[in-house]
Amino acid sequence: MQQGVRRVTALLQFRGVKITQNGSKPSFAALRHGDFRIYLVATSAAMMADNIEHVISYWVMFEQFRSPALAGFAVLSHWLPFLFLSVYFGALADRFDSRRIIQIAMLLYMGVSLAWAVLFYTETIEVWHAAVLLVIHGIAGVLWAPASQLLIHDIVGRDNLVSAVRLNATGRQFGVFLGPAVGGGLMLALGPAAGLIANVLIYLPLTWWLWKVPYGARHHRAGAPVTGGGFGDALKVMREVSGNRTILSMILLAGISSLLVGNAFLAQMPEYAHDLGTEKADFSYAVLLAANAMKAAMAVLKPILAETGAEPVGKMVIGTVKGDIHDIGKNLVGMMLEGAGFEVVDLGINTDADKFLAALDEHKPDILGMSALLTTTMPYMKVVIQALKDRGMREDYIVLVGGAPLNEEFGLAVGADAYCRDAGVAAETARRLIDERRARVA
What we know:
This protein has 442 residues and is mainly α. It contains 16 helices and five strands.
């Protein structure tokens, strides 16, 4: 084990990493380097563009082919190149100028986006076109990643390397969660083809900047360890560090999360949007993507808001009514409301009146939300509202109802305060009714 750790340490020191036992660095130290700030913004934007292409191409592929097999291939074509080519492309980045390798990756990304745009605009896309473009996109991703990691070593130097690695990872993840929301907006505003052409422009700042900066030219140095750059060398290092539980745990965790999660949900999101049952599935798709981004942002912001003592806009208890097991629309409403600043208590599916009432007593919300997708279960909403009246609690809560078979007349008939046709309307209506109620009390 010690030999393996020494080998990793030697490699890090060769890269310019200063290994110290003690001593602290200022927070976000790498941001003090002007060129790294530019690189961080540009590479985060490029990662966003990568995910913008995903969401637009996945939508059009679903609309054109409705093929679960193609959706599955989209996931495999993204991750298998990382599995089989990462070691070789890492060696490539070590031997050649990492700036030029990143530029090649950006050109591949731009070429794929332009090809999608032309095929979508001319309506000539076939399954084999999609398969080829998906594979090229996956190869561009694995070509970019190792070179990007090496380039930051040259930009910030030894003292700020740890900070730069952390910030680079954070920036890339920011692009990952923001890209789908921006992609959905571009698709709605410009259409798929024009949205992809606009997406090409997002890759340009990083590509152009790399021509100007004096980093990335890789030359072997005296005494530098020479590696084979193949799987054999990778396995040798793995054996040497296998006794280090921290390193091994990080590798296994990253591998398992990629296997089980990856970006698979994006390829299935178009069908998910269609299952909502709305007339404008493309709008539902964009809202789903935006809600997912807001959900991720709220996960980061919640601890910060808790520390500042910031109060939520309001609280909502929501559930699908008894006899109904559909929860897609309900989940989307919950995500949208959380993104709008509400605290949401989700009771899940098949929720009876007693469970709704118990949750109201426990959580003391401002709003009760009920969802139904079946015409046979939507009348149960009136049962819940009547139970509120019987207990003298009806005026204590704002009641919102929603679901594909409902309409405004039904909402009024069962005694709800409002019917919400989609998640966006639900968020707007919830905020408006809470403001109106608080204004009356004041």
